[in-house]
Amino acid sequence: MQVVCCLFMAVGCHTGNCIHGSRSRQFEHSPDPEIKMSTFCSLSFSLSFGIQDDHRLSTSELERKYGTSISEGLSSAKAAEILVRDGPNLLTPPKATPEIVKFLKQMIGGFSILLWIGVVFSWISFGIQLAQGAESPFDNLYLGVVLALVVILTGIFAYYQEAKSTNIMASFSKMIPQQALVIRDGEKKELPADQLVVGDVVEIKGGDKIPADIRLIFAQGCKVDNSSLTGESEPQSRSCDFTHENPLETRNIAFYSTTCVEGTATGIVINTGDRTIIGRIASLTSGVGNEKTPIAIEIEHFVYLVAGVAVSIGVLFFIISVSMRYKILDSIIFLIGIIVANVPEGLLATVTVSLSLTAKRMAKKNCLVKNLEAVETLGSTSIICSDKTGTLTQNRMTVAHLWFDNQIYSADTSEDQTTQPFDQSSPSWTALSKIVTLCNRAEFRPGQENLPIMKRVVVGDASETALLKFAEVILGDVMNIRAQKKKVAEIPFNSTNKFQLSIHETDDPNDKRFLLVMKGAPERILERCSTIMINGKEEPLDSEKAEAFQTAYMELGGMGERVLGFCHLYLPENEFPDTYLFDTDSMNFPTSNLCFVGLLSMIDPPRSTVPDAVSKCRSAGIKVIMVTGDHPITAKAIAKSVGIISATSETVEDIAKRLNIPVEQVNRREATAAVVNGMELKDMSSQQLDEILCNHSEIVFARTSPQQKLIIVEGCQRQGAVVAVTGDGVNDSPALKKADIGIAMGIAGSDAAKNAADMVLLDDNFASIVTGVEEGRLIFDNLKKTIAYTLTKNIAELCPFLIYIITSIPLPIGTITILFIDLGTDIIPSVALAYEKAESDIMNRRPRNKRKDRLVNEQLAVYSYLQIGALASFVTYFTVYAEQGFLPSTLLGVRVNWENNAINDFEDSYGQEWTKYQRTYLQWTGYTAFFVSITIQQVADLIIRKTRRNSIFQQGHNTIRQYFLLNSVWNRLIQFIHSSPSARFQYWFVAVPFAILIWVYDEVRKLFIRRYPGSK
Amino acid sequence: MARDKEKRSCGQIWAEWKAFVWDPRTRQFLGRTGSSWGLILLFYLVFYGFLTGLFALTMWVMLQSVDPHVPKYQDQLLTPGMMIRPCAEGLDVTFNVSHSQTWLHYVRALHQFLEPYNDSVQASRNAACAPGRYNEQPDDAVPNVPKRACRFNRSALGPCAGLGPPHTETYGYGSGQPCVLVKINRVINFFPGRNKSINVVCAAKREEDAALLGPLQLFPPNGSIDLMYFPYYGKRVHVNYTQPVVAVLFANATANVEHHVECRLRADGLRSDDERDKFAGRVAFRLRINRD
Predict the structure, then answer these.
(1) CB contacts < 8 A (A, B)
(2) Is the Cβ–Cβ distance between B105 and B199 less than 8 Å?
(3) Whose CA is closest to A404, among A562, A563, A591, A637?
């Protein structure tokens, strides 16, 4: 029960101290103690044991417990001793699979097994034939060797490909060794963080990474960003007070790997390395099993299918040949021959090459694929569970709306804004802009003048940064403006006041008044105002104007934006001469009866490419679910603006509001959209979750903890969906691993997330996922084409062997010649098929149903072209023999005498007599002709395989030219090797009518498919 | 998928199978309803019917284009092959003089082979041709007129003709002086020797073994083959064509030794040393005469 609770709880609460605006208002109205409590709850049961009771202990008790002193720190000797005992303060890296195992895995997985079986069988067959003293047993030996080579080379190639992307990963994790400021032997020392031991006293300041789990003993304005641990995006304040029973909740502990955003603190290290909270989570991840990728399942399915077909045909013909009074040993050789002939020799290489080509192409589009097979998984994705922050949004606060002069103005929130289009002529704006500029502590880091404003690095919190950049865009050099209006006093923001205030000189030499500017939570600011500025004039703040303010505030807040109020006051010159000494502690200046100027609202705006990408997903039948730790209102607003919730759809709450009825009375099925709060999710049974996932097409999960992501993923998988999940935090790693395809963020992602993921988005952009989906679908389509192409030919190649057994004609095509086709002429067109461009409807189809749309299905396996193809080849074969003296009637049943070495006066249809060698030579000519014929068929096959639905007239035809070229080259080679006479030119044409027939037949078939989609 | 598999029990799998084979609810057999199966079968019937027709048609067209009298190409037959009679497994003539069952089948085979060469048969069927030149019989106006064959009399084979009393005739096998016939493969329109006389020569394959093999007697004398037996016009028009043979009599071959014998056709412009084809213009065989 407790474990379950662990998973279900942990509702990301952004603790009460959200700075300003609508959100803080929300909290004041619904002070829910549980929210705070549950933040870490998920971790608490399983992980809190490690924290012991350190948060309860007083400073002196701590000193005693860890044998340390707050002023002096540990002695170096003692520290060294503990270091030996506990080991360095490092997370044990996840156990890497040994390279050799990885390599061997490439050699024996999926297709390779099939080929290995082929190898073994060929060698067995070789052994039997050698023992029998057959005349050309070495064909089978070579066949085995070639097959083995194919597997090994492909394995090496695939291994190399994966190793390459692993290397890219490795370069990510390479970080500058972290330093920590430690007090040892009474001195402050900079030490590498991995040297820290329990009991060390460390000092941290804004910007530092917390070097271990520490119990704070001194803190000043300290805030930590726990997002890598919990997914919460809001910084949380830390102090040295014991505030909560739960060690994970209490304020006086800071956790390893989190970041100190601002302030300073000193603490005692209480846990290091793998014993830290993050270390425990990292080790938990390994408990979640990895799902088999869809393509792996497909390939398994394919292998079964091929093996099934091979064995059943083999056994069937074994029985036939035995009943035809062949020798048992011969029959066994036939059996093996048939099984080996079924092995698609070229396919393994083709699939590997195709996948890695696509992976390469995706890497260019910022999707780094760690596991080649993941390429295809992305294509079959039917649900994407996406993070909001950073993935859908730009991950930076930006001013979205302004309200002054009783009017709401929209600001440009795009990534590369250089101007702001709203009306800036009003004197109210001038006043507002002054407040925005002056009442702001954020500063640009120096030396960035050449960078675009949006890209510059700012020191300061998110809101202030947004305001600074906003002002910089409109007004230009803000730092200069501030310098001209010297700041004489300042009260920084704090959570009791909920405002920030500063007093400045003016830059007008004739105006000696001081300007007091203030910003903060709108309602707090309004309380302090008695007038309001309308069109540059101060007007009394009556109830009507207050009402207007309320409406605007509600509206902006309803858009999920963080709203700030701005007001100012020119201090009368007589009361406050320029020599006046302001004292911020006694507040010897007015802080009420100010003049309200306006509101500004900020949001982390969606990336500009995202709405388009979401609509692409939608038309591709992919459900996009937003899973965020953010507030439902913000989440919903972003969801709406990117199209995850479409403009027309409503949630249950919306319907209730519209119809003015209680939520309970709304028919839940009417609502297409749903915003699910993590709190609700916590209490849901899996059935309820399934119901939500089923009934609503547009879902946003808000205030969810990373653990709940796992539950959501499992829910989606229960629906039979192929689920892609994005994540960056350490806590996301279980979900990333559980998902069919885990996508980690390259920039924001933690190493643990990247390790667990199958793919890394180098630009953290949701749109890149969609490109990935497109590539993934393309590869599935193309692989399907390749396989269809290969299989068609494979069966056509098997046909002659079967006919040979049954009718005892001279063998139409030899093993080695078939190898030439499979590994020679057909490799290039197969790979070329993988390069085919997407069919026009690729992103307008539903994702494939993983139970129904198989890579190889019955329909594909019984494609009828193979019969046509085999027919054509046989006609060519009979033509060659007839023109050389053996009419078809003579050929039937000649096998035994034909292959008898002692018979050197074999009579043909014209009464001529042939030696064995002459017959063999003729047989090779037959091979060549058969080969030519098959390749001609393959041209037709290639043409029709290029598209599955579209007509060839709707696609290009570049590969065919290459194919012809290659074909003639190989043809020469095969003649050279057999030193047979070239297949007479006319034999090239025997198959042409058949090839045309295949093509016409297929175009008709495709026409039917397009006309009557959905029918079998 | 993997998840689903784990959850299913054996019974469920069996039930699923049964439902797949025959689903009483949807009346589906192997996943298809009766009408669906009917349609599918009809389709394949039509399709295969069409294919068979197509195959038959193209084969017919192809056969129409083939001349029944003379093959279109003879790429492989530039040098005719040679063979021996009796022809046993692996070109191996091994027998024991004292045990008649070891050579009786050779005798029977030779009898049978030489039947059409009987002088009487030759006289009644074939013409006496002018020796020393090709017996060319051009089609003047009518194509493919039947051609006359030249006589090859069995008696020309001398002691190897096997014309002794039927019950005592052994072609020398009974006395340890066996006869082996060498023949040249029929090849249509083949003119050997460029108008010069041709003959068959036989010898031990290795010169040092020649002494063991002893002298060989060839019939007709010198192993010569008359040019009048060429060319061959094909079995359709040259019905009674009698293939010339040369008999080799091993008069004094050492017993209980394996002899490797090679016979070649000596004709101007004919190569008999093809590395890959051991039977082009030559024939090699083993001979072993055992005596108790």
Answers:
(1) 125
(2) no
(3) A563
Letter for the amino acid at A326?
Answer: Y
Between CA B130 and CA B173 the distance in angstroms is: 35
Residues of A in contact with B2 (CB under 8 A): 291-292, 297
Question: Would you say A468 and A458 are in contact if contact means Cβ atoms under 8 Å apart?
Answer: yes
Give pLDDT tens digits for B38-85. 887 888 888 889 888 988 998 999 899 999 899 988 888 888 999 998
Taking alpha carbons only, the member of A954, A939, A941 closest to residue A837 is: A954
From the list A208, A387, A781, A826, the catalytic residue is A387
pLDDT tens profile A571-610: 888 888 878 888 888 888 888 899 999 999 998 888 888 8
Residue of A884, A918, A920 best to disrupt the B interface, most CBs of B under 10 A: A918
Q: How far is CA A527 from CA A406, A515, A541, A594, in A?
A: 18, 19, 10, 9
Q: How many CB atoms lie within 10 A of CB B20?
A: 12
- What average pLDDT does the segment A276-285 reach? 71
Q: Do A875 and B55 touch (CB under 8 A)?
A: yes
High-pLDDT (> 90) share of chain A, % = 7
Q: Nearest-CA distance from B43 to chain A in Å?
A: 11
- Of residues B1, B91, B188, nearest to A850 (C-beta): B1
> Contacts of residue A903 in chain B, CB cutoff 8 Å?
87
C-alpha A962/C-alpha A940 separation (Å) is 14
Cβ distance B81 to A905 less than 8 Å, yes or no, reads yes
Name which of B71, B83, B89 is nearest A910 (Cβ-Cβ). B71
Question: How far apart (Å, rounded) are the C-alpha atoms in residues A272 and A266?
Answer: 16
First to last CA, chain A: 50
Q: Is residue A387 annotated as a catalytic residue, yes or no?
A: yes
End-to-end CA distance of chain B: 79
Rounded Cα gap, residues A427 and A533, in angstroms: 9
CA-CA distances (angstroms) from residue A423 to A429, A430, A472?
9, 11, 17
Retrieve residue A929's tokens: 């002709």
pTM for this prediction = 0.67
SS3 A430: helix
Contact check, Cβ <8 Å, A917/B279: yes
Beta bridge partners of A538: A533
On average, the pLDDT of chain B sits at 87
- Looking at chain B, which residue has its C-alpha nearest residue A722? B1
Asked if B249 contacts B160 with a C-beta cutoff of 8 angstroms, the reply is: yes
Q: State the angle between helix axes of A766-807 and A610-619 in degrees (0 to 180), rounded to the nearest 10.
A: 30
Distance CA A478, CA B184 (A): 110
CA distance A57 to chain B (A): 48
Residues of A in contact with B55 (CB under 8 A): 871, 874-875
Chain B residue with CA closest to A984: the answer is B73
DSSP codes, A741-802: EEEEETTT--HHHHHH-SEEETT--HHHHHHHHHHHHHHHHHHHHHHHHHHHHHHHHHHHHH
Cβ-Cβ contacts under 8 Å, A907 against chain B: 186
Nearest to B279 among A884, A888, A915 (CB): A915
- Are the beta carbons of B95 and B289 closer than 8 angstroms? yes
What are the structural domains of chain A? 54-91+176-287 (2.70.150.10), 383-392+607-764 (3.40.50.1000), 398-600 (3.40.1110.10), 774-1011 (1.20.1110.10)
Suggest the residue from B65, B181, B186 to mutate for an interface test with chain A (most A CBs closer than 10 A). B186
pLDDT digits (tens, 9 = 90+) for A146-178: 888 888 888 888 788 777 766 655 554 444 457
ipTM: 0.89
Residue A596: both structure tokens together: 């309200």
